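Re: weekly structure request thread

Next one in the queue (608 aa):
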Amino acid sequence: MRGIAKYIWIFIFVAFVGGFLLGDVSGLLGRAPVTTTTVVAKVNGDKIPYLSWQNLSAQLASEQERRTGRPLNLDERRQIDDQAFNQLVSDVLLQQEYKKRGIRVTDDEIREAALTSPPQDVYQNPNFQTDGRFDAAKYQRFITSPIARQQGISLQLENYYRTELPKQKLFSQLISDTWVSDERLFRIYRDERDSATVRYVAIRPTPAEIEAAVVSESEAQQFYGQYEDRWDRPAHAVVSVVGIGRMPTAADTASTAERLRTLKAEILSGSATFEEVAKRESEDTISGPDGGDLGRGPKGRFVPDFENAAFALRVGQLSEPVQTQFGWHLIKATERRGDTLALRHILLSVKQNDSSATATDRRADELSTLAGGALEAEKLDSAAAQLGLLITQMPVQDGQPTSYFGRPVGGITGWAFSGMAVGETSDLLDDDDGYYLVRLDSMTRGGKQPFTAVRGEIMQALKERKAVGNLAARGEALLADAKATGLDSAAAKAGLTPAPVGPFTRLGFVQGLGYYNEAVGAAFALPIGTPGMASTYEAVLVMVVEARVEATRESFEAQKSAMREQTVQSLREQKVRLFLNNLRRDAKVVDRRLEINASLRRQSVAAP
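Done, posted below.
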């Protein structure tokens, strides 16, 4: 039973990682110190303590690092922080909804669920199976055993169900009336299976015609209000970056190849097997622990230089060192069957030698001493000038990785949008390619943008729509000619070339026509062979339906039962998802993370 307990604890950690205290604690921001009792957010007046957010974020980060086998950079850590924050906000909103609806669970319900409805992973655990099938009696004996109680597993499972059962009751209320009639189901069936093939010509406005279109200020304001959910924008900023590269030299490259030759000699001497050396030396984190095994397959799996060398080997033969963009490889062919080859390899990446790396580290330390963590913008300029380093200014966008001289650098984006003040400089960031100091030069906050910020975008969109509307007369003339002489002849006179498209359904994007618009609808409404006209936001189209295939009622009846089950399940999931989205949208959430981060930053700088 002690061996079984670890599986339950694994589930508890994954499933219960969000179950943190949401108690009513308080804290002060601004000039006061930030403490573990500081409130990080208010959700409809209910408080989320800073400690809850930090604990959950740390647990999620630890789990992510365990899965990836490496530390997280600042970009990844910020994503984890956001995930933890959103999870806590959702927990509070759900608790508020339970209270509003009077949803409660009894201790008896919780104990019954813990005994009779184990977590899904438990069903696949061989320790709880008999003859390959889940054995409820084994599971119940374990849950009620002294070991389970002593290790706190029973209590943790009860706490898990104390969280899950109210959620299940809420979701049951939301989906209880979900149903779909035969006629609606048949419409869905047809939308997914009816297809059309058309030829069309598009009359598009010229840039001059778009520019000449007149849009009033009131029209733009009305458009802004009508589509208010379209104006959310991510935050963006401008940063200055100073980098010190960890660039290996030609001597480092030669040294890495020579190291592989030494490993090859060790293997050929019989003092170690290829698999043993791969486990010990290879930097391929996936194949290395498995003795360098790359599996079996035909050509086309690897980059050309690697593949050419591999397929030139005899079974059992070791290659000379092979260089690719990933480093140097020592390859062994272990089996050949026809045109497939089983391979193992040892990968060594090319890095600076010890003396070069030490010099780079010292230079980076000097840069950090001169400007790392500085609040004065000019310190980075001074440090770069003193060390003869280049300052590169670049735009960054929240949620998007930042590239520096064509290389993605993790951490720049995460630092820039973590509550820094304009003019501040980061502490020293680093990755495999170098060290970096980053200064925040400007910041535009994200969220719903005011009309003034998106006015130009709106005016351009409305101009394009009006310009398309002004093409209606040309479209009608082309349509009349197409009806009289055929689409090809009419198009040739207008200097246009018909384009074929299809077959396509009513759902999804159609090249040239767009998505779920008048043109797509016309393709399923026009008589076959008769020209028709439709408009989109981008063009006026004259089209001819060349073929159409319609789903039959008979084929629908044969699949109706299974389709209803899938559709109802999909509608239930959609209903729950929309409810949760609306719950978050309508909530009043006061997010103090940026203020707290800024306050922590000031504390760290002021600390002796």
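Residues 553-586 form the longest helix (34 residues). Residues 1-32 have pLDDT under 50 and may be disordered.
Next request, please.
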